[in-house]
Amino acid sequence: MKAILLAAGLGTRLKPLTNTIPKCLVPISGRPLLSYWLEKLANLGINEILINVHYLAEQVENYISQSPYRDKITIVKETALLGTGGTLKNNAQFWKDEEVIVIHADNFCLSDLSGLINSHNVKPAHVDMSLLLFTSNQPTQCGIVVMDADNVIHEFHEKVSNPPGNLASGALFVFSDSVYERYFKELKEHTFYDLSKDIVPNMIGKMQGWIVDDEYMDIGTPESYERAQKLI
What's this model's pTM, rounded to 2 decimal places? Predict the structure, then answer.
């Protein structure tokens, strides 16, 4: 399995902290957020990682150049943001015929994710993708899913005013090797696509949910950032 860490975002909700540091490098208990992800992926046995960069890209590149995991990492610099789906399409050669875990590097996760990988390995034959889920106390701000008894997702509601529950997408995906051919092949290159809005809805009935077994959150606001500091 390969990994893609999406790390190009501007971090606007976390200003003024992100005026001088990219969100993927904000310190959590003295360690850059990105370092937690790289360590987690190494512990899962993943040896090929692609990271896209854009905002304050030089800082991310400098950090990776000194990382003990630098030989596992390919950096892709985006001169213009392509969105999460556009990044995947433009870098298809890295992952298109492989299983790949796709992670937003500005999220914080205490789970080792072994349960997610194990769940994906025994998924039903018709399922193409596994999605990490968590219980949200702000469901209107999240993508909310509805699953059946087999954990197959049959509804996905992206940030609606009256969500049908509080089981939320963590925007952390494990793709099977069929995903590119079925969902990305016909997309245009060098075009902005949002993974959760433009691609995931096409996977309804073909993706399974896995409820995370430890803390998981978006480090998108000063409040969530402070909560992560307390947790660690």
Answer: 0.94
